[in-house]
Structure formats: C-alpha cells, structure tokens
Amino acid sequence: MSLQAMAWAREAMPSLPVAIKAGPRLLLMLMADYANEQGVCWPSIRRLSAEMACSMRTVQRSIEALVEQELMEVVPRQTKTGRQTSNFYRLAMGVTQQQQAADEPSLEELEALMAGSDEEASAKPAAAPAEHPIFANAAQQDDRGQPAQGTGGARQIAMTLDWEPEATHWQTETLRRGDPSLTWDRGELADFTAHFADKPTRTNSSHAWCAKFARWVSDNRKRQAAQQARTDQNNAKNNARTAGGSTHASHRPTGPVRNAAMSAAEGRVYLEQQRRQAQAGDAPGGDILDGEWSS
C-alpha cells in the first residue's frame, strides 16, 4: 500500500464529475490501496469483484470510467503461451518521465515479477531479478504491500468484537441498496460482531463485511417495522372493543340457586312443590331455611 497513492486518490475524488457514481470511486480507492510507490498495481478482476461486492462486468465498466477520466492507464498482459492474464494498472499520479525511468520497473521487469502468478488470488508476486530493489521488496509483500502471511486469501479478515464499518464502504453499500439514509446503531453493531466473531474461520474483506452488515441492519429495520405494525393493529382492536362495550352476554343460569344445606333429593322435592303450586295458582313458597325439617 502506498500512502502517496491513497492521498492522491482522495484529492482526485472531488474533481470527478457527478456522473461518476460510487462504483468507479470505490475502485479508485482500491487501486490506490493496491498500488506501490510508483502507482503501479496488478489486482485481478475477480479479486476486485469480490471486494467491491459486485459483478465482474461492473468492475470492468468502472475501470473504463477511470480510464476515460485519465486517472488510470491499463497495460494488457499475456503469458508466454498467449493467454490473457491480469493487467497492469498505472495511476496518473503526475510522476515525471524522468522519475519513471529512474524508479519504476519497465514492463519487461514487471513481466518477470508477475511470471508464474495465479490470476485468481496470488498472495505474493514471484521473486524477481535482484538487480532492481523493487523486486526484493515485492517478493516479501502481499497485494497491499504488507508482509505476506502465507495463509492465502490476501485482505481476508475474521470478524472481531471491535470491528466497525468504514464510512466510505457504508456509504457505497447504502447507495447500492437504494437506501442512502440507512444508519446503524451500537446495539445492531454489537449483535452483528458477536454473531460472526464466534466463527473465526469465516473471513471476508472489509468491504464484504460492510455489505453483510448493511443487509443485517436493513433486515432488522424491516422486522421492527413489521412488529410495530402488528402492535398498532392489536392496540386498535383493543381500543375499539373497549369503546363499544362487551359483545358477549353473561351465560350464568338465572334459575333458583340450590341451598348448600339441601341434598339432591330434597332439591328435587322442593322443585316439584314449586311446580305444583304454580299449576294450582298458589303463591310460591317461602325461603328454605337451613336446619331440620319439622312435621
């Protein structure tokens, strides 16, 4: 990674036309992140596609946009058998021809540097002739210019509890999802990092993690909205029921309540007596008192 290239890319961003959207802007930052001190890099289209979380065709269109803006030059590269492999990219950092001749390796030297590298994901370039200083350093570095770890999957990181999405990546992902106003809070971030930190073997690039987090937050917002809608609906039903009164009448029997001191047989005698008095037109008998029956 070249700090000079990163600073140049940041300064070039505001000068880009409004028509240049998030894809080419993100690609410019990635190219600067990959570039060496001379502004030269050689990441594959497949790797850039994985880090930008987009299709390979989208990456190619972004490259074409940067070339059209004269911010980058593409140098095609082929193997000795004629097979097309990953290109060289030279950022237009304003380096003079004299400085290039003194500091930058020639295309032949770059060919020797990249000889035998895998198009898909080469963690470090092959060793090159020792006569040029750049090769001794490149042989010990990964695509970002950092010491090679020898683990494969350069730029792939496992989730940690202190991870936070980069502002540029978050803005890019919210634009891609069509929701630029989407924001996250600390609770959602804590849930996300705790969930994936328990899976140390699962690795992604920083931008890919940000894309997953944006989807996590968006889905969480949808669940909250659905839950709130159900709550509001239930509250509306309860309020309507309270305002209109109960619609269910009491089903308690309205007939005579049996005295707890009477047996079942005594109750039947009492009910038969009441029935006969009603048929005879007599007034119903008085209350039944607890205690012994008198003759």
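(the above was protein one; protein two follows)
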Amino acid sequence: MQRVLAELMAARGMMPLLMKARNGGQWSEAEREELLGHLRRMAHLSPYLVALMMPGSIFLLPAYAWWLDRRRQQR
C-alpha cells in the first residue's frame, strides 16, 4: 500500500507537465524524459488504480465490481 501511495505522490508533478503542452508551451527534452518516467512508473501500478484515476472513472465502479466478482466465481 505504501508503494502505491509513493507512486501516486510522485505522479503529482505530472499534471503541470501535461498542461504545459495544452497551454501552448513546448516540452524540453528533459521534460519529455520526466513525463516518460512518470508514465512508466504508473504503468507498473495495478491497472485498476490507473483506470480509477482517469476522468469519469467513478461511473465505471459498478462495472469493475461486477468484473472482479465474476473473476472470483470462476476460480
């Protein structure tokens, strides 16, 4: 659990970096490397946590619960 929290806290700096391109700025080479590092760290987290961080994911919670419950029944 602490690993997940540490990864999520490390990803806090990712949002301003992503918004830089959205606001018309250009990423430097160092910023691109930092962004790739953030994405790689997030890819190592559980896919469920990454999916829950996406906008609108609160509406997918019933589908996640159904899918997880279905997986448990097959075992």
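Reviewer note on protein two: The chain has a mean pLDDT of 77.
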